[in-house]
Request: fold
Amino acid sequence: MPPSRLSRERSLLLALLLFAACVKNLGTESPTTQAPKAGTLLRDCVVSAPASVAAWTAPATLAYPDGALWIFQSAILVDGSAAPGPAIWIPSADAACAGPTDLLRGPDGSPAALLALDDAETIANAGRSDGRALMLVPKAGFSAGGLGYLYYDHVLAGPDPFDLQLLGTGICVLDTIAGTCARVVDAAGSTVLWLGDELPIRSAFVDASMAYLLACRQPASLMQSCTLARVPPGSAGIIAAYEYFDAFQGWSASRTQATQVLDDLANVSLSYSPFHGRSTVVLTNPFDGKVSLRLGSAPDGSFGNPIPLFTAIAPAPGTLLDGGAEQTSLRGDGGRVIHIAYAAGSFAARELHLASFQFDEVLQ
Reply:
């Protein structure tokens, strides 16, 4: 790849991680240093990049019963090329920290492209004269019934690396962890199932017979409004199957009836904790690396004040942390030990971390 093209790929990757990290903290109260200690940070390891990878950043995670599938928007390889939609399989937290883990490979031995532009989109990008390009950015997902469901953004990027326009949200389905994620199309043949910020999914998990989804929007600079949606996992590709939480009337088929459920300056990760017996939201502050937790009676219930957990590696000057997803399939000791993946450092030396935290007791 020519140096100018490689530089543009690096710049776009950095812009995307900043784009992803600009979200709001849940609730109105901030963690304080005087709060009781909730537990112990066991380790914060660097997940070594595969030998073939020169640069990457935080992935989207699909939790499977036997491990986690990390899917990246792109990775810069040591030969200067960009691998679209690569992934790695993480069977355990210990395996991730022992590293390096190789990228999943296709039948020809090249990195498997789980999420990639189709031929028409690639040709359209090549034919543009405005310096812009369509990119597919994996955000969050879940697994159910042996299938993986990945929500991703359609982003129009360029000509400046920080010129990023969210075109909408799509979903794709994986039948094998190293296969192609089949992009769902609507009745008009479009992979943009929700336009603009109609449903920008930022966290997803399955509880009983439903997949719960956090959709977070930026109404203004440094502001975020998150709403809650749910869908039967096997119907995730059917727009009409989604319901949206309305704090006044309960679940509704109308997306426009959804009310705000979360509001904090942090990257958010919603799940259910078997250790605490409650719904949880992990908050990772992209500006200072502080990680905290909120507890709720249910995904659609109210959440308590943030409980400080630990402080991650501080972001490098001029950057933010990205990622912050709790790795629910890697939990230890019945959920007493949790693991959070995030990326930090300058873009030239950006590192992927996996932080492991053990709770002292069940939190109330």
Summary: Residues 286 and 321 are 4 Å apart (CA to CA). The longest strand covers residues 133-144. The two ends are 54 Å apart (CA to CA).
